[in-house]
Design brief:
Blueprint: E1 21-23, E2 29-32, E3 37-39, E4 50-53, E5 56-60, E6 66-67, E7 72-73, E8 82-85, E9 94-97, E10 103-106, E11 109-112, E12 119-123, E13 128-134, E14 141-147, E15 151-156, E16 160-164, E17 170-171, E18 177-179, E19 188-190, E20 197-202, E21 206-211, E22 217-218, E23 225-228, E24 234-237, E25 242-246, E26 249-253, E27 259-261, E28 267-269, E29 273-277, E30 284-290, E31 293-304, E32 313-323, E33 330-339, E34 346-353, E35 358-365, E36 375-385
Antiparallel strand pairs: 1-2, 2-3, 4-5, 5-6, 6-7, 8-9, 10-11, 11-12, 12-13, 13-14, 14-15, 15-16, 16-17, 17-18, 18-19, 20-21, 21-22, 22-23, 23-24, 25-26, 26-27, 27-28, 28-36, 29-36, 30-35, 31-32, 31-36, 32-33, 34-35
Length: 389
């Protein structure tokens, strides 16, 4: 009787694994199933049913099964819809009815036979195709479609579409495009026509930065807005104060038109104020400022008719004003007076108004002004806070 020496390790010295083969001196090939060695052709002479190459044997066993080095095809045939699967033990493949039997085919489309609506479709020759995935929610579905020339499209219910373009751009359902907008080296976000684009942050409260269709950038809260006009000037628009901070302090552009300068104490450049004063008025208020501003320097311009109403005459001067802590006393001086008229068009004074709690500059037109016609006073200057601010 031939002696059989079953190996315990493979050619690399590793423990024998299930599926390993051994051909004995009796011409029979044995396959290790993980526990024992099974022989397949004890009645067949060696070489008549085997191909051997470098220790790998292929053969047909006595049952007609086709034996490969690591697994065996059965001689039996399966039924419609069955496939070969790995057995629970050993290496002989088995026929089984699996999920692959749940598909039916109609032309270029494969349908899932369970009736859940899943299908895969290809359009031969065009390069297009779709995968249709139904949701568990009634009436909802996801369609993944390869659209030739457009890219990959994801669609929900056939209406909400995302498109991954062949050029790398991503198009959102509302038409917003994320990608290369201005050529190589650029990346951007293009919103649809007349659509506001928001970037929202939160620290507990929601803060939205809005890029508006007209090109304005609105800061959280809606104001201020930043935009560029036709001549490329940059405008910051808000009804409130705008503050610019640097190491020297704050520059404040007031909502009332003032410019507040940085320093040890505030100094205001006042907005330009234009006032119409009737020719018969007395001490008409043409400028005022807060009580805690103890010094003011103004440039005053007066325009009006002198002898006829065909041409304006102009008067220009400066005025300096001081205010005391004592009884809110005010002292003022007008200097540098020049005029194109024969005589001055108006006189100026300053006093404290207890009702408004402000310092007021007043104007009284002179008899030089043509009766019945007003003078127009323009006042502009700088005011300085008291030192104990």
């Amino acid at each position: 009787m031939a002696e059989l020496n079953f190996p315990t390790v493979d050619n690399q010295g590793n423990p024998i694994q299930a599926g390993a083969q051994y051909t004995g001196s009796n011409g029979v090939t044995y396959i290790y199933d993980g526990v024992k060695w099974d022989g397949y052709s004890p009645e067949t002479l060696a070489g008549s049913n085997s191909l051997v190459n470098s220790g790998n044997t292929v053969q047909v066993d006595v049952s007609g099964n086709f034996v490969l080095p690591n697994y065996t095809f059965p001689v039996t045939t399966g039924t419609d819809g069955q496939t070969l699967v790995w057995p629970s033990s050993g290496t002989l493949l088995e026929w089984a009815t699996g999920n692959t039997g749940q598909w039916s085919f109609n032309g270029d489309t494969a349908y899932n036979a369970t009736g859940n609506g899943l299908y895969i479709q290809t359009n031969q020759g065009s390069g297009d195709g779709s995968i249709y995935l139904p949701y568990e929610n009634e009436g909802a579905n996801l369609n993944i479609r390869n659209d030739s020339g457009a890219g990959i499209e994801l669609s929900i219910n056939g209406a909400t579409n995302w498109t991954f373009g062949e050029n790398g751009d991503l198009t959102f359902p509302n038409g917003t495009v994320l990608g290369t907008l201005e050529g190589p080296g650029t990346t951007g976000l293009l919103a649809p026509l007349d659509t506001e684009f928001l970037i929202e942050t939160s620290n507990g409260d929601s803060n939205a930065w809005s890029f508006r269709p007209d090109g304005r950038l609105a800061l959280p809260g809606g104001e201020p807005t930043i935009y560029s006009s036709d001549n490329a000037d940059i405008t910051l628009s808000t009804p409130n104060d705008i503050t610019l901070n640097n190491t020297n302090g704050a520059w404040i552009f007031g909502g009332d038109g003032r410019l507040e300068l940085p320093g040890d104490l505030p100094a205001y450049h006042t907005p330009v104020k234009r006032t119409s004063v009737n020719s018969t008025a007395t001490n008409a208020v043409v400028f005022e400022y807060p009580l805690d501003h103890h010094t003011a320097k103004l440039i005053l311009q007066v325009e009006g008719y002198e002898t006829d109403n065909s041409n304006w005459e102009t008067q220009s001067c400066e005025m300096i004003i001081a205010k005391s802590f004592k009884n809110n006393k005010v002292a003022a001086s007008v200097y540098g007076l020049v005029h194109t008229s024969d005589a001055p068009l108006a006189t100026f004074d300053a006093q404290y108004n207890a009702i408004t709690n402000t310092i007021q500059v007043t104007c009284t037109p002179t008899a030089t002004v043509l009766l019945g016609y007003p003078v127009y006073v323009v006042a502009y200057g700088t005011t300085v806070y008291t030192s104990d601010y």
